[in-house]
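I'd like us to work through together how a protein chain folds, taking it slowly. We need material for that, and I hope you will provide a protein of your own picking. Go ahead whenever you are ready, and we will take it from there:
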Amino acid sequence: MSLSRRIRSYYSRYPVVSVVVTAGVIDMVIGGTTPAWSLFWLGFIAATGTLGWRWLASRRDIPPMPEPPRRYLTSESSASSLPMLRIDRRQNP
């Protein structure tokens, strides 16, 4: 899967997280290329904090393992078949 397709699918799946991470990365670029290091660190904290929060939230969404189904009837009881019913055409109500 190409990087642009992966970014687009992630952006459409988590739009708020993606906007905050994008803003944080832009702040990091602006703060890193200019002498505004506080802007760099603000962007770094925003981007990594948002990604960390999303990672923790995704780990909580894992449901517990379901219990195996309980079988109340034995396998032999389901083997017996019911008699076939026939509809008699002569007995119309």
